[in-house]
Amino acid sequence: MNIRTWTILPLLVFLGIAGWYGFGLMLNDDDRALPSQLIDRPVPDLALPPLREGDEIVKAADIVALAKRGPLLVNVFASWCLPCRAEHPLLMELQQQGVKLIGINQRDKPEDAKTFLKALGDPYTWIATDRDGRASIEWGVYGVPETFVIDRTGRIRHRHVGPMDRAVLDKTILPLLRSLAAS
């Protein structure tokens, strides 16, 4: 082999490997899909203090009772989370459409969470505080934000990791909520 072949060969190998991985990434429709042992299982048992003064402790039984009236979303968020801020307008939109949302405020100071919601709006029916993150562990949360779709029987039907965007909302969340409401 001549010197020109030796200089081009590494480039060709690199392009081949990059193409292989790039093709694999394009085949993956949901790059946020992470396995969850909770899919099709009841919401985890919890009893968390409310964020809002005057509200009662948020329990799994309360979430199940609310879900019997129609599917709902459980959204894990924090005031310090920039992606939570980015998805918040979509949560406000869902609330305006009549979708019930339960918030779990993870590892946050209550006053910071209240300031966050005062500035951006409060789309939640109830907000539980998970100061130490234990409830989030029970839900299998990797980080914030994460959103769970709960059906009328109180079972987790879908989990979305990361901030929701318009595409996720229109292609996954809303069709699933409609389907669960009709069943």
TrEMBL record:
Its main location: other. Keywords: Cytochrome c-type biogenesis, Disulfide bond, Membrane, Redox-active center, Transmembrane, Transmembrane helix. It comes from the Bacteria. The chain crosses the membrane at residues 6-27. Residues 37-182 form the Thioredoxin domain. InterPro entries: Periplasmic_diS_OxRdtase_DsbE, Redoxin, Thioredoxin-like_sf, Thioredoxin_CS, Thioredoxin_domain, Thioredoxin_ResA/DsbE_sf. The keyword Transmembrane helix applies. Pfam families: Redoxin. It is found in: Cell envelope. PANTHER family: THIOL:DISULFIDE INTERCHANGE PROTEIN DSBE (PTHR42852). NCBIfam families: dsbE (TIGR00385). Belongs to the thioredoxin family. DsbE subfamily. This is DsbE family thiol:disulfide interchange protein. It comes from Lacibacterium aquatile.
